[in-house]
Amino acid sequence: QCSFITCFYEYHYVGENKNWSEAQQYCREKYTDLATVSNMTDMKRILNKPAGNMNEAWIGLYDQTDGNRMWHWSLPGVEFNESQTNWNTKEPNDVNTENCAFINKELKWADISCDGANEPNMYFICYNSTSEKFHLIKKTVTWLKAQSYCREHHTDLVSGLNQLQDEQLSKIVNSENINFMFIGLFRDTWRWSDESRFSFRHWNLDFNDEEDTTDQCVFTVFNDGGRWNINTCASIKPFICYDDKVILIKENKTWEEALYYCRDHYHDLVTITNLDEQRWVQEKVKNASTPFVWMGLRYSCALDLWFWISDEVVSYENWVSDGQMDNCDMSGAMETGGQHQWFKKTDAEEF
């Protein structure tokens, strides 16, 4: 069970058999939408399914019929920026439909087939958020199997410009006589029903996304570790909905006005205690019209500390390093663009 503070959304398993569109309509009427999965934490929660014979269920991922492929980083929370890339000359060239990426010894990027059908399998580089950052894995596998290995043994495939420009990574690559290595960059046409832009994917290891997947929808298979597969959207299956507890209020208010509005109409201003919650909230704030949104974070002059109004300890932090001093009448706000960091703002400002 999840409280409001420790869990921003709840999953609901519906044992009725419906096609994907009917399941989507049901979830939107009864809850918020078909299930969105933002990372492995969500995936593990989904696997805690209720007793019964439900082995597979629709989730909210579907193929967009216009076929517009978008690049994503494998590591949740790292966003791909078209203006900040390091492609090799004439790359990506998309020969034979190439939806995954690798680097050469100069750390230049190139696209490649994900399933190894038209290209050789490769070594790959994992990123670890808790120990030595980068690990070159000398196994020749497909891109999907490389991603699976990194998530099981480390954190994920190396992802994002910051990681790929790290000096430690450069030293590892230059110390080895290896020309090509998979990185955590891929592109696809899949979209979430609730229009969120989470890049997390948990495909069956034999999945081939380089075939025509138009009018296909995604289901999770519980006895396969929750891994995902596809079927025509007209197929009949049980499904998983989610109920959202994070609500973006599109009205400009001072911090105190926002506080009382939330307490009068909902529960409270939002509290963020870990990276998973940060990612969920930052996905919501992208839809705000102001440069910042208020959080339930407040500065106490008397105690000389920042605190959550929910009484949660400020353990996880995501402050911008702008050198601004703590002052009375200040509260915390998240930027709606950029890296979605936290800023110290005067209470009288309206967001």
Automatic annotation (TrEMBL):
Residues 11-115, 126-242, 242-342 form the C-type lectin domain. InterPro entries: C-type_lectin-like (IPR001304), C-type_lectin-like/link_sf (IPR016186), CTDL_fold (IPR016187). It holds the Pfam family Lectin_C. This is C-type mannose receptor 2-like. It comes from Kryptolebias marmoratus.
